[in-house]
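Session log. Operator J.P. requested a structure for one protein chain; no other inputs attached. Running the standard single-chain path with C-alpha coordinate output.
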Amino acid sequence: MTLVSAGYRAVRRTSELVSISECVTEVHDDWFRALAPARQTGLDVLEVGFAPEEAEPIVREIVEDGWNRETSVVVGRIEEGASTSGELLGFELVGYDGGLWHTWRCLGGLVDDVRAATGVVPGRYGLIEAAAAARQAARWLTESGLGDPKVFHWAAAALLVP
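Structure written below.
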Protein backbone atom coordinates (compact mmCIF):
# COMPACT_ATOMS: atom_id res chain seq x y z
CA MET A 1 0.00 0.00 0.00
CA THR A 2 1.31 3.42 -0.95
CA LEU A 3 1.27 6.00 1.81
CA VAL A 4 1.67 9.74 1.37
CA SER A 5 3.69 11.57 4.00
CA ALA A 6 1.89 14.18 6.10
CA GLY A 7 5.13 15.21 7.78
CA TYR A 8 6.85 14.51 11.07
CA ARG A 9 5.71 14.85 14.67
CA ALA A 10 7.95 15.06 17.69
CA VAL A 11 6.39 13.06 20.53
CA ARG A 12 7.28 11.44 23.84
CA ARG A 13 7.02 7.70 23.16
CA THR A 14 6.37 5.20 25.91
CA SER A 15 6.70 1.44 25.83
CA GLU A 16 2.92 1.09 26.13
CA LEU A 17 1.53 3.80 23.85
CA VAL A 18 2.63 5.61 20.72
CA SER A 19 0.41 8.43 19.48
CA ILE A 20 0.46 11.67 17.51
CA SER A 21 -2.43 13.07 19.57
CA GLU A 22 -1.93 15.82 22.11
CA CYS A 23 -4.75 14.23 24.09
CA VAL A 24 -2.79 11.19 25.22
CA THR A 25 0.92 11.96 24.88
CA GLU A 26 3.42 14.80 24.96
CA VAL A 27 3.60 16.27 21.45
CA HIS A 28 5.70 19.14 20.16
CA ASP A 29 3.47 22.07 19.23
CA ASP A 30 4.13 21.78 15.51
CA TRP A 31 4.38 19.50 12.51
CA PHE A 32 7.68 19.36 10.67
CA ARG A 33 8.25 19.28 6.93
CA ALA A 34 11.72 17.81 7.29
CA LEU A 35 13.31 15.29 9.60
CA ALA A 36 16.31 17.32 10.81
CA PRO A 37 14.39 20.10 12.63
CA ALA A 38 12.07 17.54 14.22
CA ARG A 39 15.05 15.70 15.66
CA GLN A 40 16.28 18.91 17.27
CA THR A 41 13.33 18.94 19.69
CA GLY A 42 14.83 16.24 21.90
CA LEU A 43 11.66 14.16 21.59
CA ASP A 44 11.10 11.02 19.55
CA VAL A 45 10.26 11.62 15.89
CA LEU A 46 7.51 9.85 13.98
CA GLU A 47 6.68 10.19 10.32
CA VAL A 48 2.93 10.16 9.70
CA GLY A 49 1.47 8.73 6.51
CA PHE A 50 -1.99 8.26 5.05
CA ALA A 51 -3.44 6.32 2.14
CA PRO A 52 -4.16 8.96 -0.54
CA GLU A 53 -7.92 8.39 -0.39
CA GLU A 54 -7.92 8.89 3.38
CA ALA A 55 -5.71 11.97 3.14
CA GLU A 56 -8.12 13.84 0.88
CA PRO A 57 -10.87 14.44 3.49
CA ILE A 58 -8.25 15.45 6.05
CA VAL A 59 -6.81 18.05 3.68
CA ARG A 60 -10.33 19.31 2.98
CA GLU A 61 -11.05 19.74 6.72
CA ILE A 62 -7.77 21.57 7.33
CA VAL A 63 -8.36 23.89 4.36
CA GLU A 64 -11.93 24.59 5.56
CA ASP A 65 -10.34 25.57 8.87
CA GLY A 66 -8.45 28.37 7.09
CA TRP A 67 -5.10 26.73 6.37
CA ASN A 68 -3.45 26.13 3.01
CA ARG A 69 -0.41 24.50 1.45
CA GLU A 70 1.93 27.27 2.69
CA THR A 71 0.57 27.53 6.23
CA SER A 72 -0.08 23.85 7.00
CA VAL A 73 2.73 21.31 6.87
CA VAL A 74 0.17 18.50 6.62
CA VAL A 75 -1.60 20.05 3.60
CA GLY A 76 1.70 20.92 1.91
CA ARG A 77 3.27 17.50 2.41
CA ILE A 78 0.17 15.60 1.30
CA GLU A 79 -0.23 17.77 -1.79
CA GLU A 80 3.46 17.19 -2.63
CA GLY A 81 2.69 13.47 -2.66
CA ALA A 82 5.95 12.36 -1.05
CA SER A 83 5.97 8.70 -0.04
CA THR A 84 6.72 7.63 3.50
CA SER A 85 9.86 5.78 4.50
CA GLY A 86 11.06 4.17 7.68
CA GLU A 87 10.03 1.36 9.97
CA LEU A 88 6.27 0.99 10.34
CA LEU A 89 5.18 0.78 13.98
CA GLY A 90 1.48 0.43 13.16
CA PHE A 91 -1.65 2.47 12.52
CA GLU A 92 -3.47 4.89 14.79
CA LEU A 93 -7.06 6.00 14.17
CA VAL A 94 -6.98 9.80 14.17
CA GLY A 95 -9.16 12.73 13.24
CA TYR A 96 -8.60 16.46 12.81
CA ASP A 97 -10.48 18.96 14.98
CA GLY A 98 -9.71 22.66 14.61
CA GLY A 99 -5.94 22.35 14.87
CA LEU A 100 -5.89 19.34 17.20
CA TRP A 101 -5.44 15.69 16.34
CA HIS A 102 -7.65 13.32 18.30
CA THR A 103 -7.08 9.61 18.58
CA TRP A 104 -9.65 6.89 19.06
CA ARG A 105 -8.11 6.48 22.54
CA CYS A 106 -9.00 9.98 23.75
CA LEU A 107 -12.72 10.07 22.98
CA GLY A 108 -14.29 7.80 25.61
CA GLY A 109 -14.96 4.21 24.71
CA LEU A 110 -14.20 4.31 20.98
CA VAL A 111 -11.64 1.50 21.20
CA ASP A 112 -14.30 -0.75 22.72
CA ASP A 113 -16.92 0.38 20.20
CA VAL A 114 -14.60 -0.41 17.27
CA ARG A 115 -13.70 -3.79 18.80
CA ALA A 116 -17.37 -4.72 19.24
CA ALA A 117 -18.36 -3.66 15.72
CA THR A 118 -15.35 -4.79 13.67
CA GLY A 119 -13.22 -7.07 15.83
CA VAL A 120 -10.25 -4.73 15.30
CA VAL A 121 -8.11 -4.30 18.40
CA PRO A 122 -4.95 -2.38 19.14
CA GLY A 123 -1.73 -4.34 19.47
CA ARG A 124 1.83 -3.33 20.31
CA TYR A 125 2.14 0.34 21.30
CA GLY A 126 -1.66 0.65 21.20
CA LEU A 127 -1.54 0.62 17.39
CA ILE A 128 -3.37 -1.50 14.83
CA GLU A 129 -0.87 -3.74 13.08
CA ALA A 130 -2.56 -4.46 9.72
CA ALA A 131 -3.34 -1.69 7.22
CA ALA A 132 -6.56 -3.33 6.01
CA ALA A 133 -7.89 -3.70 9.56
CA ALA A 134 -6.98 -0.11 10.40
CA ARG A 135 -8.72 1.23 7.32
CA GLN A 136 -11.79 -0.92 8.03
CA ALA A 137 -11.92 0.43 11.59
CA ALA A 138 -11.50 4.05 10.42
CA ARG A 139 -14.31 3.66 7.87
CA TRP A 140 -16.62 2.14 10.49
CA LEU A 141 -15.79 4.84 13.02
CA THR A 142 -16.49 7.59 10.46
CA GLU A 143 -19.80 6.00 9.43
CA SER A 144 -20.84 5.48 13.06
CA GLY A 145 -20.66 9.19 13.88
CA LEU A 146 -19.41 8.35 17.37
CA GLY A 147 -16.64 10.99 17.26
CA ASP A 148 -19.19 13.79 16.80
CA PRO A 149 -18.93 16.71 17.58
CA LYS A 150 -15.12 16.65 17.68
CA VAL A 151 -14.20 14.34 14.78
CA PHE A 152 -16.30 13.64 11.71
CA HIS A 153 -13.72 11.88 9.54
CA TRP A 154 -11.39 9.21 10.95
CA ALA A 155 -8.30 7.97 9.14
CA ALA A 156 -5.73 5.24 9.69
CA ALA A 157 -2.49 7.13 10.25
CA ALA A 158 0.63 5.05 9.63
CA LEU A 159 3.23 5.86 12.28
CA LEU A 160 6.79 5.23 11.17
CA VAL A 161 10.21 5.64 12.76
CA PRO A 162 12.39 7.42 10.18
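Operator note: The chain has five helices and six strands.
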